Fold this protein.
Amino acid sequence: MTRAAKPVYPANKYLEGVYAPVPDEAVIGLEEMTVEGEVPADLDGIYVRNGPNIRHAPLGNYHRYDGDAMLHAVQFNDGRATYRRKWVETEALMEETAAGRALWGGMLDPRRADRPDMPLKDTANTDVVLHGGKLVTMWYMAGDPYLVDPVSLESLGKADFNGKRTTKISAHSKTDENTGEFVFFAYGRQAPYMHHGVLDGEGDLTAFTPVELPGPRLPHDMWMTHKHTILHDLPLIYDEAAYAQGRVKLRFEADWPTRFGVLARHSAGTDIRWVEFQPCYILHTINAWEDGDWLHMTGCRIHPFEDAQGKPDLQSIVTIMGRHKLRARLYKWSVNLATGATKEGPLDDRWNAEFPTWKNAAMGDRMRYAYCAHIEYEPVITFPGLIKYDLETGASEYFSEGSGYTYSEAPFAPATGGTSEDDGYVVCFVRNADREQSEVHIIDARNFADGPVCKLILPCRVPEGFHATWARGDLI
Ligand SMILES: [Fe+2]
């Protein structure tokens, strides 16, 4: 384990408790863990989670989204497990490390006027997927994608798409495990405001096209079927007057529709077909699939607070997104691409459910199962339990070991030789506050409500983070 001098952090609820950053990188073998149960022999691959972990004391007002990317990974093979964690060596972090201090403020601070190439620090801290045998880390504001070795977590530099990358890339660009392709989108403040593209399994750019939006937008995710990408034009935007004064203020344009852009994977952006739904905001999609002329899409739709008359207060979406009061419900949108008919509605109205995962290889199929985190947002965002959803019926199974436990986004790991869609495991980091320890839980997805079949008690903390993936052993 390598140790660095621990910075002195200012008081901030996202630098304390389950969010307190760790000061070091680490490699920990199974012999250094306490194991409850047995690591399943048919679990082969690497669970990787990205998230913010500041390396230098912040210059200004720390925001939860500001920390430097640190990957936490657990490699499983042949009944054994190894935990590793390492910072992603981004351009900004390397500049700061050379200087021995932070050089950028955070999203609540003024932008760096002397760095038009990176006025806000691109941390790459948001998302991670496997493509071409390497991890790709991505940033929610659209930034440089960084490549990382999935086993050692050594940084391999920026992905340059074999010399052809000309845009930043948004978090929640996706890998198609069946074709090996990486389907990406990019958004920004300059017209045409969005791009879409595809890399093949070798990293060659096979499609790249501008997608024209009416103005700058703040999309966070997309859907992908076997044929189409579905891009988001949602009515949450920056207040441009405030932006011109250097302030970040969100606006929700309740009179604008939600628009989903349906684009064949390798087509030009001029061929995109926009479909309108009720105004809303969506952070995270689940699955989309095509059934004849119908295109169906599931996801976690932001769930507004209610006004004095008990009706949804759409303006509360600004508060929800701007002040970490994350509220969402499982929801389904459908459009008939032949007739233009649309349908939409909640699949479940009970759980505040977000950070969804699923079987990667089933993306684009009529997927049956998704695994979400149950969200609480006071005093900070935490995940007090996990939910297994049946996307056909909205039925759910809930699992939590109690109020002392906090879970992470929990990807699905298919069992080696598994047959059914849920033949595998849900893997996640868990903070056990009662025993002041961090654990890795492995839950048999077919017996979800029974809880973990194996727990690995780590000799170190793992702070809360953002998105995770399952890197299949045969794809590494
Ligand atoms: Fe996200």
